[in-house]
Design a protein that fits this description.
mainly alpha, elongated, Integrase catalytic domain-containing protein, Integrase_cat-core
Length: about 50
């Protein structure tokens, strides 16, 4: 979980200036989909979780 939290923080949360909480939620939803469906994971040997 700590690695996931660090990834969230450094891959998108700290890289954007958000205007509203709704914008944060929308960005998080899009990022999470990418994280689970397109982004290779080192712990899985470079494959995606899905």
């Amino acid at each position: 979980m700590e690695r996931y939290n660090r990834t969230v923080r450094y891959e998108w949360l700290a890289c954007d200036d958000f205007e509203s909480f709704a914008e944060v939620q929308e960005t998080a939803t899009k990022w999470l989909w990418t994280y689970n469906n397109e982004r290779p994971h080192m712990g899985l040997g470079g494959i995606i979780p899905k």
